[in-house]
User: Fold this.
Amino acid sequence: MKKITLGHSVKPLLIALGFAISGYASADDSLIARGEYLTKAADCVACHTTKNGQPFAGGLAFKTPMGTLYSPNITADKETGIGSWSDEEFLRALHEGKGKNGENLYPAFPYTSYTLLTDEDVKAIKAYLFSLPAVHQPNRENEMPFPFNQRWGLWFWNLVNFEGQRFQPDSSKDAQWNQGAYFVEALGHCGECHTPRNITMGMKESKAYSGTEIDGWTAFNITSDPHAGIGGWSQAQIVQYLRTGHVDGKGQAAGPMAEVIENSTRHLTESDLNAMAVYLRTLKPLNPDDETQSRSDWGQSATSVNTLRGVPFKADNTTDGARLYLGNCATCHSFTGDGVKDGYYPSLMKNSVVGAKTPNNLINVILHGVSRKTNDGEVFMPGFAETLTDEQVVSLSNYLLQQFGQPTLNIKVDEVKTLRGE
Assistant:
């Protein structure tokens, strides 16, 4: 593709979409406020902040098949951060994947999506980052064996997987659709997690948004396919999910997606969320595994635990799935699995985590729980990694699948050990 230059005819459309255009932002405060919003939309804090660490100070580990990368400090500290970077250098990083000295950046940093950002929006993000307190925190050295520690080799990766270009509005679509495309493709870089990777770890564009695995979690198919994707979701349901991470009868966000809700999408305006939903509903429908039933259409109320109610129980090493469910889950989700009426404790049937064709997210939720901050408060479920053995997690998971989800799945101990990190 040719690099796209935005001409005068495109500027009115960008202004209508709310994109920053040079000459239209009048004051530093306005630019910084715009940058703060864009930084949240781009979810920069998630990758550049460690648990309990200083925001944007870096140090978060990313384990890849090629080794471990650590995110850099992007605060305004001049020695350890980006305080000495010029606008041009910052633009080059986001648009071309180049560091301050021209070195290739590893594509764990999603410059492959950020390349679509307008110059003005990139500068607004930089203005916001530079308005925050500088944090003096040296960057950690990456742990990459040869030859992956040779950044010059990324030239070949870019040749195969990267086309540097700015976002080009589609004149055949309306302003709302283009607004959504910009937020999904560029700022939200949703494809980076929801698109399968090729042998070089570049995105398989032919299977865009059809789902993949990342950090042990399944990033679901979010194409418009009614069975494999979210084609059965309404506009309002997609907006609600992006805002709260919860939609009755569909699913609840946990793991990395819960972080996206907490750090990013819950902060977006209704206009931008609706635009994203409009665009997502037009993504090409893909169903790689020929699924015939949506992941949120499985399960029914359970009655099997009725026989256990009131029966004395002393052993703490049971592997009876129904007994484990009654002891660990039924208090919140009810012994039938119906949850509670207000949905805070969700139903386990008609639930995408339990009905998915892969068990990763179910196992991860049992092990690690759920923690998700929304504009209405915090959603929390404790994890059971410290209290349940691998065998008990297997039994509980298989009970949940048989009662409420994918009855064809049969989880093995090795799957639990892998996700536990053993």
About this structure: The two ends are 45 Å apart (CA to CA). The longest strand covers residues 370-374.
